[in-house]
Amino acid sequence: MSAAGLIFGVSLIAFSFSRNYDLSAATLAFAGWGMVSFLAVGNSSIQLSTPDSLRGRVMSVYALFFLGIAPIGNALMGFIAHMVGTDRAITIGSALCLSAILLSSGRLKTIDRAS
User: Fold this and answer.
1) Domain range summary for the chain, segments of one domain joined by +
2) Which H, E and C letters describe 60-100, residue by residue?
3) Residue 19 gets which letter from DSSP?
4) Taking Cα atoms as reference points, which of 100, 115, 103, 109 lies closest to residue 45?
């Protein structure tokens, strides 16, 4: 999870600075891989560590946070992009993502080992 999160964040920062179509496409491919890998490992580790009797409830909370709160983040990013520009908004979001990954890297390494 740590590596996937770092690849996602670094790829998005590279995308925000890119002005070349081919480089932008490559960085977005890496960002997509990082995002999908992070979410797949997170989902798997949650399901494997949850007792069968609670799995439905836990997955509904997981879906609420990863699907239900996304529109709020999208609106916030749209507002930031309107205020400072799209490229800077992506840089800010990527920096926040990398900060969160680095701050939680100890916990993510524990999850990686358990998986």
Assistant:
1) 2-114
2) HHHHHHHHHCHHHHHHHHHHHHHHHCHHHHHHHHHHHHHHH
3) -
4) 115
- CA 72 vs CA 9, 44, 58, 65, 79: distances in Å: 20, 25, 21, 11, 11
Single pTM value for the model: 0.83
Task: List Cβ neighbours of 23 (8 Å cut-off, separation of 6 or more).
Answer: 14
For the chain, state the CA radius of gyration.
16
Residues in the chain: 115
How many helices and strands in the chain, by DSSP H and E? 6, 0
> Could you identify the residue written with the tokens 């960085």?
27
What does pLDDT average to in each consecutive run of 10 residues of the chain (115 residues)? 91 95 96 94 87 91 87 94 95 93 80 65
Give the whole-angstrom CA distance, residue 100 versus residue 81: 21
